[in-house]
Amino acid sequence: MKRLIRKYIVASTLAMLCTNSYAQIGEMRNDFSIGFNGGYVLDKISFDPTIKQDFKPGMTLGFTTRYVCERYYGMMCALQAEVNYTQMGWKEVIETSTDTYERTINYVQVPLLAHLGFGREARGVQGYLVLGPQIGFLIGDNAKKGGEWTEKSLSLRPNHVVDQYSLDIEKKFDYGITGGLGIEVSSKIGHFKAEGRYYYGLADIFNNGKKDTFGRSAHGAIIAKVTYLFDLINTKGGNRK
């Protein structure tokens, strides 16, 4: 966790520096793009006490903006922000009965990312890294049950942990760190991006005091997504690489 935070600080610092101290030796840019994104989410909740789970599938879609501020020794420094609707949650693996349970938790999420790219700047292919903080706001949730759901089947749960079924999502505000790698293809009609990310949640969905059932209940999600951006402001020019 500490290593991830250090990487975020380094990446964010590099992106921020493109507007000040590196301006003397880098090539300044003032490019602004907007677009939309969509993708697929696989989420698990890190529970303590542990609850056995499969990945809970969901979707994500939203809007993306990006500001490119400098090219520094072949590295494109940019800041990227998104506003996304995302389905998260958990899907239990219940081996003691025919019971099934999954819960979908819907968020509006806002990642704020340092975007560092390597490759062709204008028309061509570029690899990139994104890393930064993310916040989320709960907008609703729903549960899906199947199987027996009797007192006997509930009594067979490992560690007798069953409170998650009756608890509302008690913490509406989520936050954490997200990062990933991707590839971008730029053309005269815009920028096409494909990437994989991981989101490490730092907030719990349930209260975690001494009298509460769970000491931890935080998201951990794998995200695959595609993005299309088009330029509103473009200072790169067609001849730059």
SSE ordering: HEEEEEEHEEE
Overall strand count: 9
Largest sheet: 8 strands, antiparallel, barrel
Measured as a percent range, the helix fraction is under 10%
The fold-level CATH name is Porin
Strand numbers in spatial order across the main sheet: 1-3-4-5-6-7-8-9
State mean pLDDT (0 to 100 scale): 89
CATH structural class: Mainly Beta
So how many helices?
2
Q: Cα distance, first to last residue? A: 36 Å
User: Do you know the CATH architecture?
Assistant: Beta Barrel
Shape label? elongated
SS-based structural class? mainly beta
Total tally of structural domains:
1
Radius of gyration (Å) = 21 Å
Describe the protein's architecture and organization.
There is one protein chain. The protein is mostly beta strands and 241 residues long. It has one domain: Porin, CATH 2.40.160. The protein is built from two helices and nine strands, in the order αββββββαβββ. An eight-stranded antiparallel beta barrel has the order 1-3-4-5-6-7-8-9. The model is unreliable at 17-24 (pLDDT under 50).
